[in-house]
Amino acid sequence: MPSHRYVVADVFTDTPLTGNQLAVFTDARALDDATMQALALEIGFSETVFVLPAEAGGTARIRIFNPLAEMAFAGHPILGAAFVLGAPLQLGVVELETGAGIVPVALERDESGRLVFGRMRQPVPRVEPVSAPESLLAILGTQRSLLPIELYDNGARHIVVTLAAESEVAALRPDGPALGRLEVTGVNCVAGSGTSWRSRMFWANGEDPATGSAAGPIACHLARHGLVGWGEEIVIRQGVEIGRPSTLHARAEGGGGLIDAVEVGGAAVVVARGEFRL
């Protein structure tokens, strides 16, 4: 009976049992699409990664599945997979082939050689206005957004809503079924100032503890509308309300309303290893 090994990592944290959970199948060559999807549902994390041989000059190709469908791009699976692959390969940069192109992840080590941080260069998002923003605010249970409500598409589709205070973000109790009917990856509600920000991301499956694919767009949104400087790194705290506190670092480079580059970073820690026998 074939066995399929996987690693569990907590991502955007350096503390086990916090951050966003991720399963990484390190050799998925024997798995077909239906089995990958079934394994992602069986595990039940927000995403599961399947590693395959590179096809376009990267270090490896990865496929990302949530419990319902395959995803072209997602942040914490890319960072977590880079940590899992980078440790044994002793690489300084891991280039992962995704459905949204090759994403390089630069890895940092401490004096002992242990991986402690990674920074991914994300696809530059396309920005779109959101129709009927008042309806979205009603779904979220809040009155107004400080900045225009916009959608950022970097392979995932994220709406960014900016609230006046972190207490407003913490108090949100959105209409889950209505959110699930939106044709987006997630709705991200943020508040803060300077380089310190709080975020909650709501999607069809509830609330996400750490959303790397949204952290870059959040930095873009704040820079485009003048709340942070272009090139300034912000720190985003997420997952507090659901008991999985996470820390994400993000910055956007650009000017004149145009985005040139996006970088998102954080830590990850391996917490378990196992195998499926199918």
Shape: globular
Q: What is the tally of helical segments?
A: 6
- Sequence of secondary-structure elements: EEHEEEHEEEEHEEHHEEEHEEEE
Per CATH, the superfamily of the largest domain is Diaminopimelate Epimerase, Chain A, domain 1
Report mean pLDDT, rounded to a whole number: 96
Q: What is the CATH level 1 assignment of the largest domain?
A: Alpha Beta
Helical residue percent?
10-25%
Brief overview:
With 278 residues, this protein is α+β, with helices and mostly antiparallel strands.
Report on this model:
- This protein is of the alpha+beta class and 278 residues long.
- It folds into 2 domains: 3-122 and 266-277, Diaminopimelate Epimerase, Chain A, domain 1 (Roll), CATH 3.10.310.10; 126-260, Roll (Diaminopimelate Epimerase, Chain A, domain 1).
- 21% of the residues lie in helices and 43% in strands.
- The protein contains 6 helices and 18 strands.
- It has helices at 33-43, 75-89, 133-140, 166-171, 176-180, 212-224, and strands spanning 3-11, 20-25, 47-52, 60-65, 70-71, 93-98, 101-109, 115-122, 126-129, 150-153, 157-162, 186-193, 196-203, 206-208, 234-238, 246-255, 258-266, 268-277.
- It has an 18-stranded mixed β-sheet that branches.
- Helix 2 crosses helix 6 (212-224).
- The radius of gyration is 18 Å and the shape is globular.
- The model has no long low-confidence stretch (mean pLDDT 96).
